[in-house]
Amino acid sequence: MRYIKRVILPLLCCVLVLSGCSSPFVEDNTVEEVAPVTFWSLNKGENGKLEITTLVPPIMNEKKRLFTLDVDLLKQGKKEFNLKFYRELKLGQLRMLLINENLAKKEVISLINTILSDPDVSPRLYLVLVKGNFEEYLEKEKNEKKNLDYFLYRMFRHYERRNQGEMTIVNIHEFMEKVYSPYSDPVLPIFKVNEKKFTYEGTAFFKKNDYVGSVKDMEDQMFQLLANDHYLKNLPLSPLKVSLGQVRSRVHMKVDRNYKTLSIKVHVKGRIDEYRGHRNILSSSEMRKLNKDIESYLQGQSMDLVKKTQKLKAEPLEVGAHTLSPLLQPMSRKEWLNYYENMKVKVDYIVKIEPLSL
Amino acid sequence: MSSRFVLFDNTAITGTGYIFAMVNRMQMLYYILILPKHLMHPYMILGIIGVGILSQINLLILSYYLKSNYSSQGYLGFVQLFGERLVRLFAFFGLFVILVKVIVTALGYVEIIHQFMFPSMKTSWLIFFLMASSFYIASQGMEKTIRLGLIAFLATIWIIVLYVPYFLPPIAEIHHLYPLVPGEISIHSWYGFLMIWSALSGPEYLICLGPWIGPKEKILKGLSIGNALSVIEYLILFVACLLYFGSNYLEKISFPVVNMLRYLQSPVFERIDLIIISLIMIYVLFLIALLLLYFYGAVRIAAGRIKVPTNRKGFLGSAAAIFICMLIINGWYWREGIELNIWTTLQLWLGAITYFLVPSFLLIAMKWKRGSS
């Protein structure tokens, strides 16, 4: 009798509860019954609607399928998807949010907030801006590359880990943290896409939550050195016919007391990977001249980048953070940006390079 | 059933380690999960240190009572100090205070489970499971419950290590900590101090554990270590939140301490937050069990039935009453938002007041008694 009360009764209760008879657990996560997606691609649809697209990865022997839905709300997409497809959509594996550039000009924050508020979705979700028609690319590539979405994710992850440089990689938390931070503005990577290619183009600058401009090529490389990862595996300087490798930078920014000048000192270390110019760089005096050329070239390029951000009144370089100190009260963002816009900029590069080794 | 149902037996005395574990876990309850959002400004780091020192002074006062003979006699000690009628009145007020504390702790924790783990589950089920488990623990008696305190401490203290990555770049942005000095102290920041004070409350509940704790000369040591550890934990969690979110963003996050854990990545478990939330349950259960026992004891004192032996029916009845109150409040009004809800605010004030008044009140009563006799 006692045994029954002690062991069997609670066991019976548990079995009853877990086996579905008025079970408190509602959700079913059986693998065969759910469709985990790895990304959402968002585009501007017709009549102010959102067009959202995703690929459903195969679980059994079936082909990848592309789904495109026109919706007013992001989460409506989830619902409509479930009505269309025999498996239930789950966002637990969501890794990327690709936002079309045209849509980003209109709004970003509300979309990101929706995603962020979902406890299933990790705050490490990558955010990407896309230029061009990503859907067309998907349509074409999904048959040729078997794990297209997964490989895209691997690429982002590869460049994010250990801050490998080369490209800007931003996740949802980093983006939001910058949106709310008064002395920095978020950035996002831009990828250019057409029917055949999906390639990194540069970095998009935001002002609070508005997409205001972007940099590419040389300016983007300068951005990587000044503000993003401080590292570039490869830095080709085509006008000088030289290519630097393993470039690492240390940046010191200083704003003077009256907020009139900004001096940026950048120490760059690296080595020459390739040289096809006319100087004989094995001679040390010629090498020194090349060094000077590189310094002044980088100076000029960086200056352009800083001026561009000044013109945009955006803070992707986080210059304002250097005016803060533990004991001083900070000024408001607006005040700072007014100063920043009219600041004189001085950029100094100190380049130390190992010569080409043969 | 032939076995005796004894809740308040007292066969062995628990050591300093238990006091320290209990004080620390009592101070690390629900409030730490929401506190960083309400403190927000970096200068509140100084606030936490300052209030921590005040709390230490308060514990010093408390230790005078705990060391005295009145304390080791438990209920009889209170009767000697105040007389039976007054003790019954205090117990009656105590019922209300305990009730609010249990409800806020349980519902706050259930809300976290609901939000992060089982969004589709009915909260009343979660409350039921939580209450049933703590009822089981409490029914093992006071001694075993106190012993669980140490287990709860050991099982959960290591969680603090998980917050180390938030101090390392690139996650940490050092300029989020500036400025460290306040420009002007607004009403909001005074309220922040009050919240820290209330969050550190809890040790005052030890006054009812007099017969169980000892050795007497080491009580202050146990209290101080527990309090210091809590303050350090508060500092670590708050600074980690600031470095990770920054003040402006922090304000918008409902459970920053839990939310942060979602950013950690482990190759084995993707959602570390789920494991941590479940672990937190151990000490929430411990505390609810302890407070259930307190509640039942207070009911007996208030009803004047202290001489009647404890029985299952009475204990179950008082637990059921708390459970029903919880369900009502849960259905009525419970939602964590930008502002504290009415019950959390109530607990905030009650906790702050009891923590402030109880130790000094007891000390005054003791001095007065000594003077008059």
UniProtKB/TrEMBL annotation, chain A:
<keyword id="KW-0472">Membrane</keyword>
<dbReference type="GO" id="GO:0016020">
    <property type="term" value="C:membrane"/>
</dbReference>
<keyword id="KW-0449">Lipoprotein</keyword>
<dbReference type="GO" id="GO:0009847">
    <property type="term" value="P:spore germination"/>
</dbReference>
<keyword id="KW-0309">Germination</keyword>
<feature type="signal peptide">
    <location>
        <begin position="1"/>
        <end position="26"/>
    </location>
</feature>
<dbReference type="Pfam" id="PF05504">
    <property type="entry name" value="Spore_GerAC"/>
</dbReference>
<protein>
    <submittedName>
        <fullName>Ger(X)C family spore germination protein</fullName>
    </submittedName>
</protein>
<dbReference type="InterPro" id="IPR057336">
    <property type="entry name" value="GerAC_N"/>
</dbReference>
<dbReference type="InterPro" id="IPR008844">
    <property type="entry name" value="Spore_GerAC-like"/>
</dbReference>
<feature type="domain" description="Spore germination protein N-terminal">
    <location>
        <begin position="31"/>
        <end position="192"/>
    </location>
</feature>
<dbReference type="Pfam" id="PF25198">
    <property type="entry name" value="Spore_GerAC_N"/>
</dbReference>
<keyword id="KW-0564">Palmitate</keyword>
<keyword id="KW-0732">Signal</keyword>
<dbReference type="InterPro" id="IPR046953">
    <property type="entry name" value="Spore_GerAC-like_C"/>
</dbReference>
<comment type="similarity">
    <text>Belongs to the GerABKC lipoprotein family.</text>
</comment>
<dbReference type="InterPro" id="IPR038501">
    <property type="entry name" value="Spore_GerAC_C_sf"/>
</dbReference>
<feature type="domain" description="Spore germination GerAC-like C-terminal">
    <location>
        <begin position="201"/>
        <end position="354"/>
    </location>
</feature>
UniProtKB/TrEMBL annotation, chain B:
<feature type="transmembrane region" description="Helical">
    <location>
        <begin position="116"/>
        <end position="138"/>
    </location>
</feature>
<feature type="transmembrane region" description="Helical">
    <location>
        <begin position="12"/>
        <end position="33"/>
    </location>
</feature>
<feature type="transmembrane region" description="Helical">
    <location>
        <begin position="225"/>
        <end position="245"/>
    </location>
</feature>
<feature type="transmembrane region" description="Helical">
    <location>
        <begin position="346"/>
        <end position="366"/>
    </location>
</feature>
<comment type="similarity">
    <text>Belongs to the amino acid-polyamine-organocation (APC) superfamily. Spore germination protein (SGP) (TC 2.A.3.9) family.</text>
</comment>
<keyword id="KW-1133">Transmembrane helix</keyword>
<feature type="transmembrane region" description="Helical">
    <location>
        <begin position="86"/>
        <end position="110"/>
    </location>
</feature>
<keyword id="KW-0472">Membrane</keyword>
<feature type="transmembrane region" description="Helical">
    <location>
        <begin position="45"/>
        <end position="66"/>
    </location>
</feature>
<dbReference type="InterPro" id="IPR004761">
    <property type="entry name" value="Spore_GerAB"/>
</dbReference>
<keyword id="KW-0813">Transport</keyword>
<feature type="transmembrane region" description="Helical">
    <location>
        <begin position="315"/>
        <end position="334"/>
    </location>
</feature>
<feature type="transmembrane region" description="Helical">
    <location>
        <begin position="150"/>
        <end position="168"/>
    </location>
</feature>
<dbReference type="GO" id="GO:0016020">
    <property type="term" value="C:membrane"/>
</dbReference>
<dbReference type="GO" id="GO:0009847">
    <property type="term" value="P:spore germination"/>
</dbReference>
<feature type="transmembrane region" description="Helical">
    <location>
        <begin position="188"/>
        <end position="213"/>
    </location>
</feature>
<protein>
    <submittedName>
        <fullName>Spore germination protein</fullName>
    </submittedName>
</protein>
<keyword id="KW-0309">Germination</keyword>
<keyword id="KW-0812">Transmembrane</keyword>
<feature type="transmembrane region" description="Helical">
    <location>
        <begin position="274"/>
        <end position="295"/>
    </location>
</feature>
<dbReference type="Pfam" id="PF03845">
    <property type="entry name" value="Spore_permease"/>
</dbReference>
